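Marked as duplicate of an earlier ticket. Keeping the data here for the record.
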Amino acid sequence: MTAPIRWKKSSYSGGGEGNDCVEVAGQDAHISIRDSKAPTATLTFPSASFAVFLDALKGSPDRW
């Protein structure tokens, strides 16, 4: 039996009722992300690739 995925909401979620959220879940060697308004649509990446992506975002705030 597979354990349910534990989603965590971003600390930068929108105001109000918190419905404008990005959620992240760690699963074995993968990271999944989704929009809380469309929870059935997810993107899943290998953990190492996601770490590189996050490092790029942290190092280049002016690029986005």
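See parent ticket for discussion. Residues 47-59 form the longest helix (13 residues).
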